[in-house]
Amino acid sequence: MGDYHFVYKDVEGASTQWDDIQRKLGNLPPKPAPFKPPAFTPAQDEASVPKDKSWIDQKNEEELEELEDNLDLDDDNFLQEYRKKRLEEIREAAKISKFGSVNAISGSDFVREVSQAPSDVWVVVILYKEGIQECDVLMNCLQELAARYPATKFVKIISTDCIPNYPDCNLPTLLVYNNGAVKANYVGLRSFGRRCTPEGVALVLCQADPVLNDGQSGNDDGSRKSVLEGVCRKIIERVVRDHEDGNDDGYSSD
User: Fold this and answer.
1) Are 160 and 167 in contact (CB under 8 A)?
2) What is the pLDDT of residues 18-57, one digit of tens each?
3) Which of these ranges, 169-173, 177-181, 208-212, 240-244, has the smallest mean pLDDT?
4) Contact 201, 137 (CB under 8 A)
5) CB–CB of 190/154 below 8 Å?
6) CA 209, CA 108: separation in Å to the nearest integer?
7) For a pLDDT cut of 70, what percent of the chain falls above it?
8) CA-based R_g, the chain, Å
9) CB hemisphere CA count around 19 (13 angstroms)
């Protein structure tokens, strides 16, 4: 006589009365929910998508460039202008993302990284050597400024890799380049005041040219004014903080 508990299942996973009884008694786990495929949603036709700001915002740089000759936008001056604005923003963001720190270069990198940098990029170069305390002090200031002004390019190079036999007594030396030319140079730590601080360095760098740029201040003149205003605020904050801490040796960028 066969096992009377045997129950035939003709479909894999199908439940029988015996299974249902065992589940009620707690001898089998609950029956899994039946599989339901996700509802089918047809892809939206590109031609039917509303042409508005959100549509422009979803485009990457390549797609925005392709829209320049799009006939659908020829009669919409607002969208064409907004397309140009978004393209500029994407390109500016891409430029900013390249910097933000003080990167080491070698002598063979100098022409490519400094002299041939784009004309709208200011490059700050520090000539240094390991083990010289004054170089460490200025390097710390530049690291902070590089993070604060990521649209300005900061690089460091060992002095003798840049200029053979360059004397250590001139270190650190700061060179400022723009459009392939040297715009300024500062020899020694004393160029940045009695106490070398990030604010003091920023003040010296931006006295005549818009060297420092956070990428958000618009044109060169606006960038320079924004930097100087921010530096002045930080100097005042530092003076107040030092006075409260009882450190009255003063501050000077001269």
Assistant:
1) no
2) 777 778 887 778 877 777 888 767 665 555 566 667 777 7
3) 240-244
4) no
5) no
6) 28
7) 69
8) 33
9) 11
